[in-house]
What we know:
Helix content: 55-70%
Number of strands: 0
Strand content: under 5%
Distance between the termini: 16 Å
Protein name: Acyltransferase
Shape: globular
Largest sheet: none
Number of helices: 15
Transmembrane segments: 12-28, 48-66, 86-104, 124-143, 155-174, 186-203, 215-233, 239-259, 266-281, 301-318
Pfam family, one: Acyl_transf_3
GO molecular function: acyltransferase activity, transferring groups other than amino-acyl groups
Number of domains: 1
Domain Acyltransferase: 9-317
Order of helices and strands: HHHHHHHHHHHHHHH
Structural class: mainly alpha
Amino acid sequence: MIKQKSCHIETLRGIAILLVVLGHVIGSTSEGGMKVANDSFFRYLYDLFVNIRMPLFTVISGWVYALHPVKADNISIFLRKKVRRLLFPMVFVGSLYFLLQYFIPGTNNKMVLPDIWKIYIFPYSIYWYLPALFLVFIGIAICDIRKYLNTISRWYILMIVACLLCYSELTGIIPRSVPNYFAFKNAFYLSPFFLTGVGIVRFKERLSSPVMLKIYLAGLIIGIVLQQMNFFYPHITTFYTKYHLSIIIGILSSSFLVNLKLNNRFFIWLAQYAYTIYLYHGFGTSGGRIILSGIGIQNEFLVFLFAGSIATFCPILVEKVCKKWKISSRLFLGTVPHK
């Protein structure tokens, strides 16, 4: 049973995972997902939530971590749990996805079979998030053990550093020629959002004050306006992409939503399966499209609804099956079954 005090976080987790799923159903470009045109409604829908999906998901991870932070005497246990939770699925679910994508006709972005080793070293498909978040956890653990996060002034310093690293990754200051081993560049992208979640918990009086809530709301509104301008008039809003204002907008928008205290029973229910949905929704987004295509249905709205439903609810069945055995639960869910 989810405790009442965290129902608003579980509501947001449910919303965030649904946005992630629907975003991947559409596809980040016209070459992926549903392969919709850049001027279609679905491309607009994808871009509308681009500054909220993964930032909010990562802010929630930071928020949850801050409730049970690592300590020097339990660092080995902490790391073992993160290896099991993040890296086991990266290897085993990622491999399964690779093989199915390779052998099943009609899937997007196939790789050649001899290159399967690359998915364990470089970011791969939707699973880039797993090694990147693992590196973020290691960085935060080091900061906590060295007490770099025990005052708000130090938190501000780390946030500035994290934002600069994120900006460096997005703008190419870190050369594109540098291989993205173990998704370390993606970890730079995630770090300011994770730290935002940590800060909201540890420095609640300062970061959730009435003044800050107004700043968050203003950031959310301004972010929506800028996003709309960038979508419809990209030629006059180059500053939006040039300075990657999406970083600040993602931080402020997520902070506002976390403090909004939303409470919805459906999203709270969905949140308990959020991680499994993340791991397996890629099978559903591809499978849903292939099934409808096989029976001659090309209507974008029907594909969106069907693939989105398959991608959201089928992973729940996968979790229920995998949890029946300890080995499948560990390797394909990253969890240990309750006794």
